[in-house]
Amino acid sequence: DSLDAARKNIQHLFTVNGLYEAAVHVETLDDPRHEQTNVLLVVDAGPRARYAPPLIRGDTRLSDNTIIRATGWRILLIGKWRKITDALTQKGLEDIGKKYQKENRLTASVDLASLDYDPEIIRAKPTLDVNAGPKIRVKAVDAKVSKGRMKRYVPIYQEGAVDQDLLVEGARNLRDYFQSRGYPDVDVTFRRLPPQADEQIIEYSIARGPRRKLVRVAITGNRYFDRETIRERIFLEPSSFVVRWGRYSEAFRRKDEQTIADLYKTNGFRDAKVTSTLENRYGGNASHIAVAFEIAEGVQWRIGTLRIVGIPEDEGKSLRARLNSLNGQPYSDLSIGLDRGEILRTLFGRGYRHATVRASSSPAGPRRVDLTYTIERGEQEFVRDVLISGLKATRPGVVQRNLRIKPGDPLSLPEDRESQRELYDLGIFSEIDTAVQNSDGDERYKYLLFDFTEAHKYNMSVGVGAEIAQLGATTSDLAAPTGGTGFSPRFTGDLNRVNLWGIGHTATLQTRLSTLEQRVGLSYFIPKLLNASGRSLTFSVLYDNSRDVRTFASHREEGSIQLAQKLTKPTTALFRFAYRRVSTSDVVIPALLVPQFLQPVRIGIFSVNLIQDRRDNPTDPHAGMYNTFEAGIASKIFGSQRSFGRVLARNATYHRLTKNVVLARQLTFGAIVPFNIPQGLTSDDAVPLPERFFGGGNISHRGFPENQAGPRDTGSPVGPGGAQTEPTGFPLGGNAVLISNMELRFPLIGDNIGGVLFHDAGNVYSNLGSISFRFHQRDPRDFNYMVHAVGFGIRYRTPVGPVRVDLGYSINPPQFNGFKGTVQDLLACNPNLPPAELPPQCQPVRQGISHFQFFFSIGQTF
Prior knowledge:
The structure is a single chain. The protein is an alpha+beta fold. The protein has 14 helices and 36 strands. The strands form eight sheets. It has a 16-stranded antiparallel barrel with strand order 19-20-21-22-23-24-25-26-27-28-29-30-31-32-33-36. Strands 3, 4, 5 and 6 form a four-stranded mixed sheet that branches. β20 and β21 form a beta hairpin. The longest helix is centred in the first third of the chain and has 17 residues. The radius of gyration is 36 Å and the shape is globular.
């Protein structure tokens, strides 16, 4: 009977989707070994019918052509009727209703009376019963309310119906709105006028009363909780710079009463009561109001003795350590509910799927309650075997290695869910269904079924972005070493091939294209290496061409291998070896136009990276911390032509000062220390340009344009024993970095627009020994001092993270000597002439970083 009903349901499914000639029959295949039957549904779909011109009946008030266009059943311009689907049929009916709603006919009804199929032409003719109803016009009397706001607060527009309950709700919403805008005495009533001339008017009469400001929210009677603990949980808010009139409404006040009462009840104050009063003319000022919350805490009840009955004593002891309601703790229904969930999870994990828990209490003296948890475990069940179905490309061993539950184990629902989670984490299945065979049967050993739907082998993602700031694009214009305001569009594309060889491995092609960078990477990812949870291995090759530094363009060809191990939930360790070839081109500083700097350099480096992420929201954190530490060494042992050690560490923390105000800070420290320096190079020159630290910009230091922090070209010999060149002022990068960022994040306008006050301090330094906290620059050749910048930013919340705009002001930006001519002019300058005899184009020109910097990007700074 069940199979026949299923066949009829599926037949109906095909019929409503236009497959009127579909034939469905059921086949069964017995599996005696596992005592189950596989069901095969065989379908011959046949042709799909198209819509025929519908028959439209009733008082429509619109032309038939308008209604037909609204359905979307006929292709525009071509005029061809679409093929029938149930979704398209329902959408057509909904779109007719929306058409009437746009005409303000909110009581309109649209029904599909029939859909008659003609096999001769393979078409189905819809019959529609339509009743337009009168136009509904909602207007405000005695107060101005915009049409958009009226549609937002009066729910007849969302529901597409006009009834008394929705109109009452609209009056309540309008009252709350006006109260939140500073009209606490507002009175909102409505009336429905009789329809006239195909229109019905609904009037909301709004008597606003005087506008008044909520200046105080008082809390009295609280002894157990301090005022701030209560204040951060309530919605009422006194007036401030951000909330001009304060935040007040009757609904908010009642909700806050309940919130405070719940806080006390969850901490053992079962009889706690909270009342509030509104005080007009607060402080003798008719335009000021205040709200006072009066708390009657009552008696705090605590647990005298906790007893657990129904399980062995040793199991009770281990369970007791995970409960909230222990001896001496506050007695509350919330804690009891949490305990009940914990006990059931524990029992379900041991195979007692039908366990129940009952809580009872009895007085135990003054302010004391004895609590008893009575447990009925029922029969313990075990896994007879695990049956796997649905695999096509995936090897069964991949599934079996990731199952947390094996034959003979207790039938644990938590382990079953954990197995699903780990299998989903492989990224090769789109759906995993599990079931217990004969779940309600009496046998203790049961089959556990896993059915898989494999994910698509290939998936592709593309992204589009942009950056607006003083960009550091490579240039040959010596007159502009600090860059200029620019626009950099960015395009990304990733192509993944999942489940390679049927063993869960993934190959990924990554591309990134912008005016500042072109990158192509190919990686091969092995999850759960050696079947260890949280361990993975990645092989990568990469080509990168970057032009984000004014001084040169860098090229990198790299191969790497990385082992990742999740140590704890927030902490991950990465062990990485990379072998790369780095080179430069488009160098604009003559001092760098020598083979020692231009020839490609091979770097072999081994590094260890620790990442700890305790943020509440990685895209927009409000609490927690984020730490990274990277230590690497490049040496001849690894085939490197240059030898150096490298350390880079970041620490970021986020603290809530109030409910909506966050103090965020970040400290970045890094150092590169060269050793075994090749002959002819100094410690400052031993590290290739692309390997040095570059800083400044929207994610490091907003007192600089992108990659403009740190040491600059001050003129140097061209080759060993060569002549001294004139300074250009172009950035050279450094071997040390120390930058501090601090932000005060707060709401600005509504829920989606926030403001930020920030202070950035630090710099990129020549080397570790040059790090200085000095505020002032000694001379135009001194860049080893701390630059400070303050500023203001705006954050607009979006689903992919905040869009941000930052305006920074550098308090003490660096000054330096630059050159206004071309590279050819610079090379033609005679260094042996006294400065007074140099031609004008060879005279050094004082330049500097602008005090003001502007950035536009996506995501928080850190």
